[in-house]
Amino acid sequence: MKNTAKRTAITGMLGALALVLQLAEGLIPPLPGLPPGAKPGLSNIVTMFCADFVGFPYAMGVSLIKGTFAIMTRGVTAGCMSLAGGIFSTATAWILLKKTKLSFMTVGMICAFMHNLGQFFVAMYITGVGVIYYIPGMLIVGLVSGALTGMLFGMGERRIKNY
Prior knowledge:
Elements: H1 4-26, H2 43-54, H3 56-74, H4 76-99, H5 104-127, H6 135-161
């Protein structure tokens, strides 16, 4: 895509779609046995799409929209964690989608790990090293949800390329 206005409009629409998915995830009640804050990460499908089809700056724009929304709806701590995770995973998605031949499921899993890593850096800055005990649970949830988002992205990507 070469037209900047078109890219900006598409990024705005993708940002809105990501917010709807993020809001919908917030309606899912916490599942027993999962770490606090564990979510499927469906809005990351939109970020991966943007990184693959629209471009890196626009994908980062979607991540910033998601982080700003998190600040407004869940507070500064959640917003900072969302921003950190989003920046890490978006940069990773762009690199992996453009520079490797990894499967979409693998890309989704690596991006979920990077998202969790960004969140842990913020959490450790705020609370100290005690948050390290969440790593095993969040790693498992992140890998499963990353596999899911990667597969869903792959299914959508094949259909979009046909257009």
